[in-house]
Structures are given as C-alpha cells and as structure tokens.
Request: fold
Amino acid sequence: MTRKVSDALGNDWLNLKDRVCVVTGAAGGIGREICRQLLACGARVAMLDRDEALLLGTVRALEAEGGEVRGIVADVTELASLQAAADQVQGHWGECQLLVNNAAALYADAIMDIALDKWNQLLSVNLTGYLLSAQVFGRQMVSQGRGSMVHIASISASIPQPFSGAYSVSKAGAKMLSQLLAVELGAHGVRSNVVSPAMIRTPMSEVIYQDPSVLRRREEMVPVGRISTPVDIAQAVLFLASDRAGYISGQEILVDGALTQSWLGLIPRPGFEKQDAGRA
Ligand SMILES: NC(=O)c1ccc[n+]([C@@H]2O[C@H](COP(=O)([O-])OP(=O)(O)OC[C@H]3O[C@@H](n4cnc5c(N)ncnc54)[C@H](O)[C@@H]3O)[C@@H](O)[C@H]2O)c1
Reply:
C-alpha cells in the first residue's frame, strides 16, 4: 500500500510541543529566528542573551506572535549567570530538554598580531561559553535521561577563515566539543549535533553586505545562488532538536548552499568550462 505523504508529514511532524528549550544569543539574528520557529511548534522557549535591551525588545516581539517565551539576561562566560538561568527555567517549566548553543562573537585580527586578551575573550564566549552552557543545561537533561543539544558552529570550523582572530579555532573547538558530548552523554539519552552556517545575513555580518557589489560577488560563489537567511539555519536546528533525528548524534549539518563543495569548479580548466545546464 502506498502511504500518503500527508500522513507522514503532518503539521506536527517535529512534535516539539511543550518541549523546554534554551537558546543562547537569542536576541541575535539566528537565535531570534530559532526561537520564533520553536514557539511556532508550541515549544516553551527561554531566550538567553547578555544584551538586556535587545533581548527585552526581541521577547516582546515574539510574545506578540504567541507562545510561551521567557527572556533571561545571562552571560555565557559566567557560570553563576548560567546556573541562575538554569534554576529559573527549571523552576518555571522543569528541566531543559533542548539547548541551542548559539551566542558568539567575531572580530577581525591577524593570527600573528592578535593580543592575548582578545584571543582569550573570544574563546571564552565561543568555546568556553558553549562548554559551560552544555554542562549546566546538560545536567538537567542527564537527570531526566533525555535531551538534545544543537551547537551553532560555522563552515570555518573545518576551513580556515583568515584574519578573523580566534574565530575558526573557536568553531573547530565547538565542533569537537559537540562530538565529545555525543559520546559521553549518549548513554544518558542526550544527543549532541552541530549546525554550520556559511554566508548568512545577520547583525554579525551585515557590515559586509552594505556594498551591493560584494553581495553580488558573494551570491555568485554559492551554487544555490543566494546568501542564506536565519530561516535556513533554524529549520536544520529544529530537525536535529526533534525526535525525528533520534539516531543522529555527533554529526554536523552544513547549511551552506553547497559552497564548500564548489571550489574545484573555480580552477581554470580549458575545455571544461561551465555549460548551460539542461541545454537541448
Ligand atoms: N552571521 C554569519 O555570517 C554567521 C556565519 C556562520 C556562523 N555564524 C554563527 O551563528 C551564531 C549566531 O550568529 P548571529 O549571526 O546571529 O550573530 P549576532 O551577532 O546577530 O547574535 C549573537 C548574539 O549573541 C549574544 N552574545 C554575545 N556574547 C554573549 C555572551 N557572552 N553571553 C550571552 N549572549 C552573548 C549577542 O548579544 C547577540 O545577541 C554564532 O554562533 C555565529 O558564530 C554566523
């Protein structure tokens, strides 16, 4: 018997209703969209960010769309701040069931020139912040024998992003952290995965897109022909968060429009130039 697609892919396909979720860096471009989509699925969402004004404005906007959402001002570099946030979540909704590690920073710097305090500062947010959040919220998952973590890394976790200080190193570390968590927490019913964006327009990267010629040149480099949006990233996060990905752990999904697969096509190769696809 042929099963109808609509039976398998109903509206509640992800089954995230009432799931207790924590998203760090939730007031930023990607974090906000992840929260918006989780709320649309009926999840309970704690939005953590250190930027109080931005966070409160974002929470108000999402509240207006409906759903159970709480804003908690928290700095992921400070264990006490994260523990206070975890206690609040537990007191209000119960143990965290999904952690999205997303809060991060990016500064320009050459590896040979970067000052030690800037190196340490970036790693304390992008890497140690991911560890501390995983420990604090992971303990709540272990105590109930189930949970999922999704860590936002970057294609620069695997491919060097030059003149960006400790950024690539921090993202490579986050990827290995996720793999370690997958192995060490698997027996406790906790999965851990990575979503790696490539070129995406958010407040973190907006300055790059102010020049229309840069935007056009960037678009031309991506096989799917466009720069990604926070919606693209959030959809991958929700899938990995859900029980539909119940046997997927220790993995990375690259949401990059095939950018990382395209570089061989950039090498001049006479006789093998681009043809019009599908030409009769
Ligand atoms: N934008 C891109 O081009 C791009 C590309 C690849 C990967 N990423 C990754 O995606 C994630 C989200 O990036 P975005 O583009 O939405 O950035 P964004 O700058 O819009 O948002 C980041 C948020 O994190 C918060 N934050 C920073 N430090 C914090 C701390 N110590 N404690 C708590 N909150 C803190 C900021 O206040 C901000 O709201 C990051 O992990 C980033 O590295 C972004």
User: Anything to note?
Assistant: Residues 223 and 278 are 16 Å apart (CA to CA). Confidence is low (pLDDT under 50) at residues 1-9.
